[in-house]
Design goal:
The chain has 3 domains: about 200 residues, ANL, N-terminal domain (Rossmann fold, 3-Layer(aba) Sandwich); about 90 residues, Luciferase, Domain 3 (Luciferase, domain 3, Roll), CATH 2.30.38.10; about 110 residues, ANL, C-terminal domain (GMP Synthetase, Chain A, domain 3). Helix content is about 30%, strand content about 25%. It contains 17 helices and 25 strands. Strands 1, 2, 9, 10, 11, 12, 13, 14, 15, 16, 17, 18, 19 and 20 form a 14-stranded mixed β-sheet that branches. Strands 6-5-3-4-7-8 form a 6-stranded mixed β-sheet. Strands 23-24-25 form a 3-stranded mixed β-sheet. The chain is globular and about 70 Å long.
């Protein structure tokens, strides 16, 4: 079916026509004392009808095209309904991760100027507190309770015309995780979402009728557009590392999940659980892991527990995703040895329609592409990307936009904020965030030139290279988070583990630059992926501790 227009919500209507009785969503509602999970389900036709009813209900409440709407709904069925209802209206949902902390959350709300809130009862109540961030709200609609269900049921199930928009019309504002600075609102147009859907579909050959478990809630929103079933996991997205892997694995098996997207942190827990109990994931065909570099150890475990699965690591950012992708087979081959030797982590080749370059670093704005100096193959520089899904601006942050974007005729290049290099075959190698490199008198040390060699130790859960003191005279140090139950209890245990780490890291001669190896029970990480380490925070804390 061809639904004309540019509104990205048309993809759900197409799925409802092509696969009306196909299962669209399956979300947990409650868990019994015995652990039995009760679900609610919707077909694509039901999901389309329910989001039509929700759009009509929101319109009755006063929402209209162009309204900025703070969407505060728990992951699962209601989130999908709410998002598509707003898109059908032509309103602009604002998605902010509440796990980033109250202060940062309020700052994001304040800067985005929402005129309406569509959220759970708790969010509605919180929005009535006397905070300046909520002063722009004129309308509040509570989602998920009995009143919401009754209101939708009372609306006739008739197709609602989609709001007329262009590909350049603002569709949503999605906030970055803020792992290396204040979170920023990324402006997505309907055309960018369209391009993203097509890139994901074509790159990974995702087909209607597949079953997906999205460990990152926002990525579940791709599924209705792709015609795939969304199984919502029993997972608190603000605390992914605290998740119990048992119900996740049980759902992966029982629902015959064919594809999933999550961070290395959560998939590491799933893999460890399966390995310890001899469990397999026989139906898993495709696994996307992103948010942080993926260890060879995890990839090897996944090969065993999901023998028919292809694991891919897409590289990108909230501002542009996907940019490149690489399969596990390549990462477990020559690329792994290169990473151990300090030559960066391979993140693959550009996806179709995306172009990447590595340019010489500069701290200031780059107005046009002609001002950027391209690095030679193998030379480390700053990664930039352009393509149909690359966003053009941040919401209400003209200076951040000026620093992050490069004009190239009608195209915009995004400065990824990452260090990388391109080899002669066109493969991109990731060397870490620009702002997190350690600056010493001997030169700059990118984090991903050092960490892989240390990460291969079986006791290491994750680690971070940091700079002690002030740039450019920093002292390199490695902060290690041991696996659960492996924290060194005595000075002798510490000395033994340090010696083992240094011996392993000899494969990378540059590892000798690391002057200190220290241990911390839990490294500070971003809440969304639970994988991106806050290295700058760590550096500040350990500089103060070691100076005492």
């Amino acid at each position: 079916m061809n639904v004309p227009g540019s509104n990205v919500a048309r993809h759900l209507r197409i799925a409802a026509t092509d696969r009306p009785e196909g299962l669209a969503t399956k979300s947990p509602v409650s868990v019994s004392p015995t652990g039995e999970v009760r679900h609610e389900t919707r077909t694509f036709r039901q999901l389309d009808q329910e989001s039509d009813a929700a759009a009509a209900h929101l319109a009755q409440a006063g929402l209209t095209t162009g309204d900025r709407v703070l969407l505060a709904v728990r992951p699962g069925h209601d989130l999908i309904v709410g998002m598509f209802a707003l898109l059908k209206l032509g309103a602009v949902p604002i998605a902010i991760d509440p796990g980033m902390g109250w202060s940062a959350f309020l700052d994001c709300v304040r800067r985005s100027h929402p005129t309406a809130l569509v959220g759970v009862r708790a969010a509605s109540l919180l929005s009535r507190l006397p905070f300046a961030a909520f002063r722009t709200l004129r309308t509040r609609v509570t989602v998920g309770g009995s009143a919401w269900r009754q209101a939708l049921a009372a609306i006739a199930a008739t197709p609602r015309p989609l709001a007329t928009v262009s590909p350049e019309t603002l569709a949503a504002i999605l906030f970055t995780s803020g792992s290396t600075g204040a979170p920023k609102g990324v402006c997505y147009t309907h055309g960018m979402f369209d391009a993203q859907i097509e890139l994901v579909r074509s790159t990974y050959d995702i087909r209607p009728g597949e079953t997906d478990m999205a460990m990152l809630p926002l990525f579940a929103l791709f599924n209705p557009a792709l015609g795939t079933t969304t199984v919502t996991p029993l997972l608190d997205p603000s605390k992914p590392l605290a998740a119990d892997p048992a119900p996740l694995v049980a759902a992966l098996i029982a629902e015959k999940v064919t594809c999933s997207f999550g961070s290395p942190a959560i998939w590491g827990k799933v893999a460890d659980h399966c390995e310890a109990r001899g469990l397999k994931l026989p139906d898993l065909r495709r696994l996307l892991i992103a948010g942080a570099p993926v260890s060879g150890e995890l990839l090897a475990k996944l090969r065993v527990i999901a023998p028919r699965c292809e694991t891919h690591t897409p590289y990108g950012a909230t501002e542009c995703l996907p940019v490149t992708t690489v399969a596990a087979a390549e990462l477990l081959g020559e690329a792994r040895q290169l990473a151990l030797r300090g030559q960066g982590t391979c993140v693959g080749r550009p996806v179709s329609g995306v172009e990447i370059r590595v340019i010489r670093e500069t701290d200031g704005a780059i107005a046009t592409l002609t001002e950027a100096l391209t690095c030679a193959p193998g030379e480390i520089g700053e990664i930039i990307a352009t393509g149909p899904s690359v966003t053009r601006e941040y919401d209400g942050l003209p200076e951040a936009t000026r620093l992050a974007k490069i004009a190239d005729g009608d195209r915009i290049w995004h400065r990824m904020g990452d260090l990388g290099s391109l080899d002669a075959e066109g493969r991109l190698f990731f060397f870490g965030r620009r702002v997190e490199k350690v600056r010493t008198v001997e030169g700059d040390l990118p984090t991903e030139s050092f960490e892989p060699a240390f990460r291969q130790h079986p006791q290491v859960f994750r680690c971070a290279l940091i700079g002690l003191g002030d740039a450019p005279r920093q002292t390199p140090a490695l902060v290690v988070e041991p696996r659960a139950g492996s924290f060194p209890a005595t000075d002798a245990d510490r000395e033994r583990l340090v010696a083992e780490l240094r011996e392993l890291a000899k494969v990378n001669p540059a590892s000798a630059y690391v002057k200190h190896i220290v241990f911390q029970r839990a490294l500070p990480v971003d809440v969304r992926h639970n994988a991106k380490i806050h290295r700058l925070q760590l550096a500040k804390e350990w500089s103060a501790r070691l100076a005492r």
